[in-house]
Amino acid sequence: MAARQAAELWLCHRPFGDESDAVRMVNEARVAIVRDTAERALTAGVGAVRVFSTTAIAGLEVERTTPDQTIGDIVSAAASDTDGPVCYAGSGMPALTSDDWARVLATLETGKAVSNRMFSCDWIGVPHGRILEIVQGEQLDNRFALLVRDDGSVPVDQFERSARSLLDLDTPTDLAVLAVCAELGSLQIGSSLAAVLETWRPLLAPTLARVVDVFEIMTMRQAELMIAGRVSGADWAAVDRDTSCRVRVLSEERGLRARGERARSLLATAYQSLGCEQFVSLLLEMSDSMIWDTRPFFSHLGWNPSHSERFWADLGRWDELADGPLRELIAALSPHRVLTGGHSLVAGGLLAAIDEAWSRRELSG
To answer: Which of 8, 31, 258, 349 is 20 to 30 A distant from 294 in Cα terms?
Structure first.
C-alpha cells in the first residue's frame, strides 16, 4: 500500500498598500500570523508549508509573487502539480490552534474538503491539491469553498463555528479583539503576534478600551446592542442565546465581496435621508452599544476609502482623515460605544465578544 502523502499548508501573504502607522501595524500583524499559523500547522502534522508573498519575510522561505497576479492564479498554478492534501489559509488564521488544524487534516483523510464558511471562506482544506486548479482567475479567495463544492464536485464540510475558526485579521479592530481576548485567555494567539501587539500597544490602546466597553453590554440585562452588516443567522443565534442584553440586528449584503456588486444598505439609505448628525442620533437612540461592519454602508454610498482611511476610521481616529463625510461620521461616532470594522468583526468577532464579555464579568466578580 502506498504511503499517504503529507498535507501541505499554503499561505498567500499580500501586504496592504500605504505606509501609515495604521496600515503598518496590520501588515506586521499579518506577517506574524503567517509565522504562527505555519508553526501550529506543522505541530498538527502538516508536512510542508509554502508561503507565496509579494515581499520577503525574514526567516521564512518565500515563493515570490507579483501584485498583478490574482490569488486564484497563484493557487491554481501551485495546484497543477500537487496530488496530496492541501490547506489554503490566505495570510493565516490567528486563533486556530494546533488541535484545530489536526481536525482539519483528519477531515481531509475522509476524502472531503473542509472550510470555515461556504459562501465567504477564509480558509479551505482539500483532499487533493489538484482540485484547486478550478480557482484560476479568482481575484479573491472568498469563493474557493463554493467552487470546490459546485465545480470540483467535492463535498465540503463546514468546520465548527467558533471565534477560532472565523476570526480573521483584516482591520485594526480585528487586531484589538484578538488582543483583548488573549489577555483573558479566551483566545490563544501565537508568540509572533503577541510580540507585534506589544510593539503597537500605544496606538491600539484606545481601541482596546472601546472593545471592552462595547462587549460589556452583552452581560447587561436592560441594555441594547445593535449589530449591523454581513451578520449570519448562525452567529446572530449565538448572540441571542448566550447574552443577557436585548439585541437589534440588521443583516444585509452577505456574500458582498464574493458577488462583486455594489451593496444596497438600509443604514446607508437612512444616512442619505437624514444627514450625518440625525443619522448618528438615531443610532444612539436605538442602542447603548453598536458593533458595525461598515463595508456594505461604504459600498452603497460609493465611498472607496483607502486602506489607510478605513483603518484610521476603525481606530476612531477621525483626526487622521481628510475633510469629508467619512471624517464627519467617525468624529460623531468616536465618543460613543460604537465599534466599526469589516466582516470578521460580525462573524468571529461576535463569538469572541461573547466569551470575552462573560470571562471579564466573572473575573470582576
So the answer is: 31
| Alpha-carbon gap, residue 164 to 97, rounded angstroms | 8
Find out whether 141 and 186 touch, Cβ atoms under 8 Å.
Answer: no
Class assignment of domain 8-160? alpha beta
Cα torsion angle, 294, 123, 143, 352, sign: negative
In this structure, the dihedral spanned by the alpha carbons of residues 355, 356, 357 and 362, taken in order and rounded to 10 degrees, is 90
Extract the C-alpha cell encoding 2: 502506498
Kindly list the distances between the CA atom of residue 278 and the CA atoms of 144, 224, 349, in Å, as whole numbers in the listed order: 41, 19, 28
pLDDT number for residue 258: 55
What are 115's strand-pairing partners?
Answer: 124, 158
Q: In what order do the strands lie in the sheet with 338-341?
A: 246-251, 224-229, 289-293, 338-341
Pair 36, 94: CB distance under 8 Å: yes
Q: What are the extents of the domains in the chain?
A: 8-160, 172-364
Per-residue DSSP letter, 41: H
Looking at residue 155, its pLDDT comes to: 95
* pLDDT score of 1: 34
| List of the chain residues with pLDDT < 50 | 1-3
pLDDT at 125 (0 to 100): 98
Smallest CA-to-CA distance from 70 within 1, 127, 135, 25 is with 135
Taking residue 264's Cβ as centre, other Cβ atoms within 10 Å add up to 12
Contact 7, 85 (CB under 8 A): yes
Nearest Cα residue to 173 out of 360, 317, 16, 320 = 317
DSSP 3-state of 353: helix
Pick the closest to residue 150 from 77, 12, 258 (CA basis). Answer: 258
Give the single-character DSSP code of 209: H
* Nearest Cα to Cα of residue 289 among 197, 196, 218: 218
pLDDT for res 94: 96
Residue 159 neighbours by CB under 8 Å, 6+ apart: 100, 103, 104, 107, 114, 115, 116, 165
